[in-house]
Amino acid sequence: MVTTPLLPSDYLDLVSPLRAGADLCGRIEAVHPETGDAATVVIRPGRGWRGHTAGQYVRIGVDVDGVRLWRAYSLTSPADRQDGRVTITVKAIPGGKVSNHLVRRAKPGTLIQLDQPTGDFVLPRAKPAKVLYLTAGSGITPVMGMLRDTEFDDVVMVHCAPQPKDVIFRDELHDLVADKKLRLTEVHTDTDGMLDIARLGELVPDWAERETWACGPAGLLDAAEEHWTEHGVQERLHTERFRAGIVVAGDGGEVTFSVTGRTVDADGATPLLDIGEEAGVLMPSGCRMGICFGCVTPLKAGAVRDLRTGEITEAEPGVLIQTCVSAAAGPCDIER
Ligand SMILES: Cc1cc2nc3c(=O)[nH]c(=O)nc-3n(C[C@H](O)[C@H](O)[C@H](O)COP(=O)(O)OP(=O)(O)OC[C@H]3O[C@@H](n4cnc5c(N)ncnc54)[C@H](O)[C@@H]3O)c2cc1C
Ligand code: FES
Fold first, then answer.
1. What pLDDT was estimated at residue 250?
2. Run of H or E residues at 125
3. Using a 6 Å cutoff on CB, does residue 288 contact ligand 2?
4. Could you read off the pLDDT of 244-266 as tens digits, one per residue?
5. 79: closest CA among 163, 25, 10, 145?
6. Residue 326 is assigned to a structural domain of this protein
7. Cα separation of 299 and 328, whole Å?
8. CA–CA separation, 140 vs 159, rounded Å?
9. 222: which of 12, 49, 67, 275 is 20 to 30 A away, CA to CA?
10. Which is nearest to 212 in space by CA: 222, 225, 198?
11. Residue of 58, 73, 103 to mutate, ligand 1, most atoms within 8 A of C-beta
12. Are 206 and 255 in a shared domain?
């Protein structure tokens, strides 16, 4: 009664936000620039943090201009870091709300919300004899988590970035090469052109024998999946995507967010999550690519299209949709 309308835990959150039993939070302790547009954020997670496996990602909730936004970031620290801190490494993308905030404006001391780490882009228990890491741009992050965590006898890495200065963790990678713990080929796409996967054999002759972890833009991963499948070794390729593959679009429609009382026109290619956020509707979200289900919302009326498959979902009582991979397919009402 004394603390009404707040709960006692709200006051505890003010003095001890990282305590056991509080909503899982983390405190940003440092932000270290890596390249001109990427930085590593050092986070001290609260007591409930269960730890991660190298290669996994964490969803974080960050306040940007007063709005809590959720995004996923791969953990770049090894799983057994002694000081209990973890790191993520973020590349600012043009117009990106959270990535620019974290790289350019986040301050030590800031509290962020955390989910438990998750993801199946991880190393197997039994160590493979030969490993290939195939990465591009910020796709190096989960692999750096693996490189820092687990040593293999025979590891080759092919990494693509526009120029040497854009290669995140370049000094550390070259130290590993000097210590003979890694063989590295950098493809500088501004001068060398894009990596042609069909010619991977020229860089890594025994690529098909290697257990491979690949992370980068959709074009690289699509080409890799095709190449590994063509050679009948698709079970050796493990991929991590940072964005959903949006393949099917159709006609849009008028979207009503009935709880907020907003109605906007939407095309048939833009996810309803983006449409709602643009319209100032409070939209829950997480990975923004269809894997975490952090965005599920009841569809009250009308129909939506799954942008990955083209499948149409029509409103029925109890029907939930993932707004990050669904677009309007005619007029619809989203319960937000
Ligand atoms: C499993 C997983 C792990 C991830 N790990 C990392 C990581 O370690 N480091 C990292 O920097 N990012 C990572 N991401 C991407 C990250 O979650 C965000 O998508 C990214 O930081 C952009 O968010 P934003 O708020 O800045 O952009 P938004 O404001 O959401 O988007 C701005 C514009 O950029 C486009 N866009 C959104 N995401 C991307 C993208 N990834 N690439 C290109 N264009 C995009 C949008 O369509 C929009 O036009 C990961 C994503 C997933 C799903
Ligand atoms: S935000 Fe993760 S599934 Fe939609």
1. 85
2. none
3. yes
4. 777 777 899 999 999 999 999 99
5. 145
6. yes
7. 11
8. 8
9. 275
10. 225
11. 73
12. no
Amino acid identity, position 197: I
Cis before 94 (ω within 30): no
Q: Indicate the SS3 state at residue 68.
A: strand
What is the overall mean pLDDT for the chain?
92
- Is any ligand 1 atom within 6 A of the Cβ of residue 212? no
**Which CATH number do you get for residue 70?**
2.40.30.10
Q: What pLDDT shows up at residue 243?
A: 86
High-pLDDT (> 70) share of the chain, %: 93
Q: Give the integer Cα–Cα distance in Å for 153 and 155.
A: 7
Domain residues for 175? 131-240
Spacing, Cα 243 to ligand 1 middle (Å): 7
Q: Cα(128)–Cα(172) distance, rounded to whole angstroms?
A: 23
- Ligand 2: centre distance to CA 212 (Å): 26
Per-residue pLDDT tens for 219-245?
Answer: 999 999 999 999 999 999 999 999 877
